[in-house]
Fold this protein.
Amino acid sequence: MDAHRFDEWLALWHADGFYWVPCNTEDLEPDKSISLIYESRRQLDDRVYRLKGRHAHAQSPRSRLLRVVSNVTIESASKEALIVHSNFVLGEVRSDRQETLFGRCRHVLALDEGAMLIREKKVFLLNNDTPMSNLTFLI
Amino acid sequence: MEQGCTHFEGGSAGSPVRFVRNAQSVDAATLRQLVQPGRVHSAVYTSPDIFEAEIERIFHGSWLYVGHASEVPQKGDYRVRRLGRQPVIMVRGHDDVVRVLMNRCRHRGAAVCEQEAGREKFFRCWFHGWTYDNTGKLINVTDPAGYGDDFRMEEYSLTSAPRVEIYRDFVFASLSPKVGSLAEYLGPAAQMIDLLVDASPTRRIKLSAGVHKTVYNGNWKMVGMDGYHPHYVHASVVSMWQRQADSGIGATHRADPFDGKAKTYTRDLGHGHAMLDMREHRVEHYADYETYLKGVQGGAEYIEALAARDGAEQSKLLVAIAGDPHIGVFPNMQIINNQVRIMVPLEPGRTEVLMFPVLFDGVDDAINTMRLRQHESFYGPAGAGSPDDAEIFERAQRGMNAQVNPWIDISRGMTREQAHPDGTITGHISDEVPQRGQMRYWLELMTEGAELE
């Protein structure tokens, strides 16, 4: 993700995968309230298609990214799925500006024919109720 | 409260002494040199002095959109907002009246409401304990004997914005008591707001789905109605729509409304209000959208409900417009696609844009869910559209610091404008009719303000 390796990132997703970045609060009913991102695997295809193109101006030049992931804990593990929580600090540098994002992730990882794929990913950004400028890189 | 304009008298504060840093230097003669037919000096976007004058003469001197009554549905519900730089509380009192109150204690000026939103019977100032009810009335003063026998609590209510009026649940306020009526101010923009409200089968909309808060390093006036930019700023999205016509808000933007051949127009509605008028085009491509909508649960019933209520022709327009009149209401509001926006000027080169998705009352939940997903696809800090707008606004702000030749050109389509009997002016969808309308009214407010100071 930090290196914008979009196709490799997409390949980590399950065909029924779901990507959710809530807005304003950590938990909400996504059918009743707005999220920052609430996308199926097909919509992720669109996102990546757009970002890979030459006209995603908010990623031209691209953000330089570096994230530190820690506090990894396993909520549950079975033969079919692994539910994992983690925290991250993400630094972004672009256009002479440095931003720092803090967040919590919950991954549901599915075991599918020996491969581990992302079935669900939820990202809670600590500042998701504050004005934000540019979240067009992968978070 | 639903129909027409509801009017409330303002507060008791009296006219304050104006104390504005540097703004007095921005006199009317200077302003007329900076805003000329078809061109505007970059200082209008970059100068701190002009920005201070804008705050005083436009944001503290004319009507502003504050919020929607559906954001405060229950007695005691409130939202904290800013009018220009001034903090206010939009609150529904125990008497069911929605007020706009200055968020400062009448004693020593501390904000009495710290949460952004909530429900309260009382607002207590924790500096010295003065307490107000949710109509703003002062109901408790700590140790009142200290103020002597002449002290009257009823004279110390939270101060109301001097003017508050509500049009179809859209709450507007003015910090200046001198403005005319809201109806006069909105003019033809009111019937465009109707296009949104009437798209709900019950003629009620709800702004209860949260907010996307965005910020960019550019001037507040950059956010405008511009039908010239989509193929460039949003080239990446247009390309997505070509892959998948129903993708996101592409579902309503059928057959490229910005290709120069579509029956789409820019429209100056007066008072700086402007519209990308896509009514004819949307109706022409109604069948595509109808097919799409019928594929959504409750879509067919929604179409039938509007037809039963308003007849075939009007309901077709309302369904095709999809609650999107695509208007800007000067200076701080827009209704575009599935959202109502508030623009908040922070600095000459910094602006917040708050985006509130609109839900329809009286429809299947699936329709509102669709509206949310469409909104997210393009808008907000992680959407496919807004961040590219913000990026280009920032480039424009940086570029405008080059002031050897300081003029920005807004002359496109000046020779082909058409004036209409209703007072509106139209041009091609790519013409800068909205920019000229915005700057014409900007100059009017700014020069009037200069003459008052």
